[in-house]
Design goal:
The complex is a heterodimer of chains A (132) and B (260). By secondary structure, chain A is mainly β. Chain A contains 3 helices and 6 strands, in the order αβββααβββ. In chain A, strand 5 and strand 6 form a beta hairpin. Chain B is built from 3 helices and 13 strands; from the N terminus they run H-E-E-E-E-H-H-E-E-E-E-E-E-E-E-E. The chains are: A mainly beta (132), B alpha+beta (260). Chains A and B meet through helix 1, helix 2 and strand 6 of A and strand 2 and strand 3 of B.
Chain lengths: 132, 260
Amino acid sequence: MGHRFGRILTAFALVLAAGSLWAHHSPSAEFDMTKRFTLVGTLTRVDWMNPHIVVNIDAKSEGGKVENWRLESNPPSWFRRVGVSRAEIARGIGQVVTVEAVRAKDGSLYGYMQKLTLADGTSWELVSGTEK
Amino acid sequence: MKNTFFCVLSAAALLPAFAVADAPKTAHPDLSGIWSYAIDLPPGAIKKQANGSVTVQKVNRGAMVATASIKGALPSTPAPSYKPELQAKVKDLFDHESKTDEVFYCGKPGVPRIGPPRKIVQTAGEIVFFYEDISGDPYRIIPTDGRPHRADADPTYYGDSVAHWDGNTLVVDVTNFVEDTWFGENGYFHSDAMHVTERLWRDGENLIYQVTVDDPKVLTAPWTMAPRVVKPSTEPLEESPRCVEADANRLVNNDHHGQR
């Protein structure tokens, strides 16, 4: 019997030597795994939903226009089982936060969140779990 | 006065007999309890930094395919045997899984794809399975009192179940499925004739879950999957967050990973 969150990890392990990333689709089919980028903006919403949580960030483009970015990440059941609740992240709503992510290949304002840092320096990062 | 006293004594003497009559006639193993989350989660960990401290919490993955032989398990094979004329269809479904699999779009996995239950409540005449699934949180109320399958039920994702004990193993017989589901990740479609047998038993503190699928319209023989070992859990069941598929229109090719 296969499982919804199963074999993707092998692919991720091959693609991302450091860090873990999950999707219910092949990551390379949606995200440019070679380009990790950093986004600084206001956390406006945290959608704690399946199959991926999604955080919403309003960030200014180089031209100064405010853009609404949506960054998905691992499933809520995964975050629950590493001890992270929605409330911990949602307390950052309204703050200027920093997100590291890989961007959707279709060029939309969408990505897969690898790391989130709140204004007070608290951060969460997806890692493989084997590093020291 | 004397008669009243005698009557009270008689009633008291009968109480143990009533208690015995209410108990199950045969002592079966108790499968009741909370069991580990059955969906394989990504491995990996979260690295949290706060107030100068760094913690790394690995994900607890609880219901795994058995890696060692399990006492009482049936022989299993890695894949079902489809009729030759249907093998290309299976491959095509799997190759385009991100377009053809309802589970990819938050659909119900059905039995047996949903896997072992997260919680079991066992009574004398019924056993109840509770699940946490990203598509929702179904339950199954399964008679164990010898009732036959319902004759009037419409087909469903989780089918119509009746169960009996075979020694220490609970054998759940499931029929009457809709045809929309797959019984495994690799495009394993089925017909309305699918017949699923789930076997559950205790192995020490663990629950063992093994499934056999038969569908004479599409398979050349019944398929028995490898048993899964489910650890006991203390995590209470929680309502699963709503499921909204948002990635499909961003996929640039058919690459995908296996689902449940």
